[in-house]
Automatic annotation (TrEMBL):
GO molecular function, one term: DNA-binding transcription factor activity
Domain annotation HTH marR-type: ranges: 3-139
Superkingdom of source: Bacteria
The protein's name in its UniProt record: MarR family transcriptional regulator
Matches recorded under Pfam families: MarR
Xref: SMART domains: HTH_MARR
Species: Gordonia alkanivorans CGMCC 6845
GO BP term, pick one: response to stress
Amino acid sequence: MAYDDLVHRLRSLTVELELLGSEFAARNVLHATDVRALIALLDRSRAEEVATPGWLAGHLGLNSASTTALIDRLEGRGLVSRARDESDRRRVTLHVTEQAREMGWAFFGPLIDRVRAVADGFSAADLDTVRSFLDQVTDAVGELRQI
C-alpha cells in the first residue's frame, strides 16, 4: 500500500486549513500566532483546564518576551484577560473573553457545519476509524517535531 498518498492528502487538508486560518486572521487583523494562541486558549477553556503564560509559551514554542507581547496584543483587543490564580496569587492565569468565543465560533461554526455535512455520509464505525487515524497521525507528527 502506498502511504505517501495519505501524506499528500493530509498536506492538502493542512494547506486548506492554513489558508482558511490566514483569511480569518486577515479579516480580524490578527497575526497567525494570535490565531494559534486563541485556538489553544479556547480549547483549554473548553476542556476546563487552566491556561498560564508559561503553558501558552510552551504550547506555541515561544520565548517569554514573545509570549508577553502576544498576550498584550490579545488583551488589548479584548480577547483575553489575565487574572491571579486564587490558589497561588503568584501565578497568572489566562481567560478567553466572550468576544473571543464569538470570534472562535465565527471561524469554526461554518467549518463544523461543513464537516458535519461530510460526516453524515459515513457510518459511526467509519468515523471512529477516522478519529483514531487522525489522533494517531497527530501524535506521530508531534513526536517527529520533538526530534
